[in-house]
Here is the input.
Amino acid sequence: MKAFEKNIRKVEPYVPGEQPQHKVIKLNTNENPYPPAPGVERALKEFCTDKLRLYPDPAAEVLVKELADFYQVKPEQVFVGVGSDDVLSMCFLTFFNSDKPIFFPDITYSFYKVWAELYRIPYECQRLDEDFRIVREDYYKENGGVIFPNPNAPTAIYEELEEVEAIIAHNPDVIVIVDEAYIDFAGRSALELLDKYDNLIVVQTFSKARSMAGMRIGYAVGSPELIRYLNDAKYSFNSYTINQISLVCGTEAVRDKEYFEEGIRKIIKTREWAKEELKKLGFIFTDSRANFIFASHPHYDAKVLFEAMKESGIYVRFWGGERIEQYLRITVGTREEMETMFAFLRKYMKISE
Ligand code: PMP
Here is the structure.
């Protein structure tokens, strides 16, 4: 071992889902199958490349203001970053500095563990119950902070706002982060609780309901005080996170509320239909409230099925982790994409229509 080795920060990185470069039915990374709002395309076409000479506005003011208007909060309550991964990572760095462990569920977004290790934050996973539900009392013990997604990933389960509030209310001395990457497909957001709790940070993204995973925009909403701390950390790391193109495209996306809501309705409709189809094929699954379904089949091994689907050009996600080794996570695509998947499954299972 070279002497410098001992001073190198070694991490086991997060493994993102595959991004195949050939054409497949891509149901593996919870992207939106529809294009972003038409205003985004217009903004791209009209974008003046001379703007690229200049650094972008470090405060991303137009985007922050548009989001603040949309969510009826003050601009001082909004922090933006390069996808919610960037925002969440800044949140870990800024808010989780206790010697006590932070808490998150044992089955959840696997990036939490990676950030905790990267920043050397002690952590303790709280076991979801047998139905993959959060046990709220587990989060009442002393801790250094709490984070969980709602709906959770990859389980797709949405916890009602009362559950979320109970966890926030029992943790007044630490920051509670609710990661709402999939909230638009689910139900009431913890944003409603912001006026009541100064220890709450809600994180959302443009990658799912706004169909802009490739643009990389995420945001946090919290009290002006917490957002100030987040900005201080950001300006100590990288001032220019939101580039010129993201600024204009992101702003356009937020402006088109109607398109946003219509897109969500379409995905929910396909999701509910897909649940019925999965049921007919004998799959079991949680009551998904996200843009993906977490499903298992009593007679077909998940890994074998995953590989067979991939072989035929249908990509879904499989982890093989403890307690979820028999589960596949299937992103809700277009109705046509889902029909192709069901045709494959029927053929694979030798079931006639
Ligand atoms: N949180 C959760 C729960 C997610 O599943 C994802 C998507 N991988 C993210 C955050 C990050 O999404 P993005 O960085 O694209 O905003």
